[in-house]
Amino acid sequence: MRIILSRKGFDSTAGGCPSPIFPDGRMLSLPIPDKGSPIAYQDLSFGDMNVGDLVVELTGDAKRSRHFAHLDPDLRADSLPRSPGWKPLLGQMGSAQGHLRKQGVQAGDVFLFFGSFRPVEQTAEGWRFKRAERARHIIWGWMQIGRIHKVDELPSDEMHWARYHPHFAYSPDASNTLYESTDQLVVGGAHTHALGSGVFIHFDERLVLTAPESTTQSNWRLPSFFAPVDGLSQLSYHGDARRWQVADDECLLNSVARGQEFVFDTQGQDAPIQWILSLVESIPSSS
Question: How many domains does the chain divide into?
Answer without folding.
Answer: 1
